[in-house]
Amino acid sequence: MxxxxxxxxxxxxLAGLTNAIHLAKAGVPVTLIEMNTYPKHxxxxxxxxxxxxxxxxxxxxxxxxxxxxxxxKFNITTQKGKCIQSTxxxxxxxxxxxxxxxxxxKKAAVAGVQLLCDQVTDVHYxxxxxxxxxxxxxxxxxxxxxxxxxxRTQLDKTLQRSFSYRKSPWLAVKAHYKTDFDSNTVSLxxxxxxxxxxxxxxxxVVNACYLATYDSFKKYKDLGIFQKEVLCKNPHLNTFxxxxxxxFNTPITIxxxxxxxxxxxxxxxxxxxxxxxxxxxxxxxxxAMAIQSAQILSELLIKNYDxxxxxxxxxxxxxxxxxxxxxxxxxxYAGRALQKILLNGRLQELSYTIANTIPAIxxxxxxQTHGEPLIC
Length: 376
Description:
- The protein has one domain (3-167, 257-367): FAD/NAD(P)-binding domain.
- The longest helix is centred in the last third of the chain and has 30 residues, at 313-342.
- The chain has helices spanning 14-25, 53-58, 97-111, 154-158, 214-217, 223-229, 235-243, 286-306, 313-342, 345-357, 361-367, and strands at 3-10, 30-34, 47-49, 69-77, 83-94, 114-117, 120-126, 129-134, 139-147, 170-178, 185-191, 194-200, 206-213, 245-246, 252-257, 265-266, 269-271.
- The strands form 2 sheets. Strands 3, 4, 5, 10, 11, 12, 13, 14 and 15 form a 9-stranded mixed beta sheet that branches. Strands 1, 2, 6, 7, 8, 9, 16 and 17 form an 8-stranded mixed beta sheet that branches.
- The protein contains 11 helices and 17 strands.
- It is an alpha/beta fold.
- The radius of gyration is 21 Å and the shape is globular.
């Protein structure tokens, strides 16, 4: 016999867990399926803009309990090591996904979310409802499905999402380190073919996460050699890695990261977080965007549930798409534009000159990739 839930969420990252907590808080029956167990490290910049704090307060998420690092400054360096410094208009905080996701998972359980550790293998929509199959031989049905499974999975091909058939040239690498570091600063350091973000999370641990083109990496095919021969040509990264002690046996990696445009709704599945659209890490705000996408969708689904499911599915899909585009399309465009500039050595140097001539321009650019506080 099939198991029924009004809403099923596929994926237990930031977007999925925030969705689940918000819906459960409003009394909406919700099941979340996550293939991994927690705690678990994830490839991520691990910096979150303070814009999410009012929403976290609404959800009774006590971020202070995780002892995050408070961040108010931003540095960016060119491949040659020239540095641009600025303040962050709203500020932010650093907390590891290892700690945050586990906290949210436990919070979801307390809120009444049905949590399943399993892998979804098929999603089928028919006659205004969904049928979901899992690797654990579960069969579930639901009225709505939320795809919160991250950057790229086999489910994208199941749903025939166009970007899933194209190869992507990007490789992401992340590890944690112990070293002396300005806890108040998030920094971004460019190197040939990519850029590396450094910021502190809880317990005085520094997260180093970089994105590189596969073309720049493939002739080395070894992360240690690539770090030494390419990243460390930036003098700031050279200084960091010479003094830093890695807390991981080996870095964790993700390949085939795709920054192509995605649709917020695919075959009637609502997409949130990275499944809906991935901002370039150089913008440093993907975690806040994932959380906000969960807020937008949750409010639409709660309103419909409270009104007795009278709103046609198509209307909700159109509303979500409109609100998602209003919140994020300009940010994603800004991220793509900034990446083109920062991966070009000559444009980097020109940007450095402009930023030092007109310092006020940097906070204004940062604001293009950040939102306003999420008031509920």
